[in-house]
């Protein structure tokens, strides 16, 4: 293996992070302007989403009328209006009661309010909670509580419908598949551009990140032969599996590969082993080539000087012989 030209692990890691950042930018552009518009305008997606939304809106929770009198079932990141506290409570309790004949979830919701004793005042007679008011009659801010409650009731309703409503289950599964599918397609195309297209176009399997740090790919051997196209393809396949697998496995495959790159003896990542490639430093290669050329030049000059010296000596000897010959005559 050629260790003389091996790239610095830190430079290689930063180059990889730059490539991944480029992938993220490409994915964002593709998702925003190409993939998502195509998916959202497909008839199958629109029909599935309509069924999904209509089924949810059949329940009394998460349904608030906005200024345009349009129905919506999500309020994430919106601040709740405290004057509608009782309306929210009634909606939440109604959905729990409609999904749970025993009413256990509705009781649990009231208990969660009672536990927030700095926000709610509990009335045992009506079994309801009302917001605390300060000395000026202003209600305390309960927006964070209702945001959490909204998320909790949505998850409860979703699980109930997935189990008991086949139409909802089918439509939600389709919407989820379209969403995840478009995400994976966007990521794959981004990886294809950065880790396959660029290395095929550039010389020696370089990516943009490697070009910035003057790095290149070489074979695991004692020479610096250009790598084959199949090696670039194998590297891309393994890198794509590492990144796509990291989306499911909490980043573990990519993390393992980077740790191997930094801390193993030969600084090989998983894709290096698979493709039998080594990341080399172009600066080290150029430096050694310059040194070799200088040595060759010095040796050539030395040989030339010696040849000239020998030639001068021969000429001197010839002159001496001629003079001696003249003297003899």
How would you describe this protein?
The protein is mainly α and 329 residues long. It has 2 domains: 9-37 and 179-282, no CATH class; 42-172, no CATH class. It has 11 helices and 6 strands. It has a two-stranded antiparallel sheet with strand order 1-2. A hairpin with a 5-residue loop joins strand 1 and strand 2. Helix 2 (43-57) crosses helix 6 and helix 3 packs parallel to helix 5 (143-164). The radius of gyration is 37 Å and the shape is elongated.
Number of domains: 2
Reading side by side through the largest sheet, how are the strands ordered? 1-2
Uncertain runs with pLDDT below 50, 5 residues or more?
Answer: 65-79
DSSP helical segment count: 11
Give the C-alpha Rg. 37 Å
Tell me the major beta sheet. 2 strands, antiparallel
> How many β-strand stretches?
6
**Oligomeric status of the shown chains?**
single chain
Helix content: 55-70%
The proportion of strand residues reads 5-15%
Structural class based on helices, strands and sheet pairing? mainly alpha
- End-to-end Cα distance: 73 Å
- Which term fits the overall shape? elongated
Secondary-structure element pattern, one letter each: HHEEHHEEHHHEHHHEH
* Overall average pLDDT: 82
What labels would you give this structure?
mainly alpha, 329 residues, 7% strand, two-stranded antiparallel ribbon, 2 domains, 67% helix
